[in-house]
Write a structure and sequence with these properties.
alpha/beta; four-stranded mixed sheet; 8 helices
Length: about 200
């Protein structure tokens, strides 16, 4: 799939990003109703996802293939659980609006706001992150920038064309009589699975 940047780790400014920002990031993310689950290794991911899909009674999942999906063997896991799983572009487009869970990867987090940055050049990433009622993402817990300003610096260095998303918690709006409503224009739950272990590949 198309990417704005092929290797986001190399795009992060040296000496600024790191795990020292994770606690602030997690707290800020929780304050805007994001759910943060931190694991040490890739080997823990299947248990986390198994519990999640069972808790929400998921029958259909759409997900973009990325290094986390491959390393954790999630396609085989979901097949063994008899869950409909779609990963190709045409299948994602056909099933995204009826899926129970969308699963994708993000490039880095921002401690100041609890946001995550997703390289959403590929339309499949945009569909997976907006149409299912639950969106879960993988994030390397070391790839945390301190501020929006530092994120904009990264964007200015790598962006030529494409589409980048900053996701801050689940979808919310208060444009009807100033009453806050969750999940009207997108997912009602946003789950960040933060992984301490570096996964080979460098790209999401």
């Amino acid at each position: 799939m198309k990417k704005v940047c092929e290797n986001w780790r190399d795009a992060l400014p040296a000496g600024i990003w790191g795990p020292q920002h994770f606690e602030e990031f997690a707290a800020r993310a929780a304050s805007v109703a994001a759910e943060v689950i931190r694991v040490k290794t890739i080997a823990e991911i299947p248990d986390v996802l198994s519990q999640l899909v069972q808790n929400v009674s998921a029958k259909k999942i759409v997900m973009t293939e990325n290094r986390y999906v491959k390393a954790a063997g999630l396609i085989d896991l979901f097949k063994s659980m008899q869950i409909e799983t779609y990963t190709s572009g045409p299948d994602i487009r056909a099933h995204c609006d009826t899926a129970d869970l969308g699963l994708s990867a993000v490039e880095f987090g921002i401690a100041e706001t609890g946001s995550v940055c997703q390289d959403a050049y590929a339309v499949e990433d945009r569909l997976v992150s907006t149409l299912p009622p639950i969106h879960a993402v993988f994030l390397n817990s070391n790839y945390i920038l301190p501020s929006i300003e530092s994120a904009v610096e990264v964007f200015s260095n790598v962006f030529e064309r494409g589409y980048l998303s900053l996701i801050t918690g689940p979808s919310r709006t208060a444009d009807i009589e100033r009453v806050l409503t969750i999940g009207v224009h997108g997912p009602s739950r946003f789950i960040i699975i933060a992984v301490d272990e570096e996964v080979a590949g460098g790209e999401a």
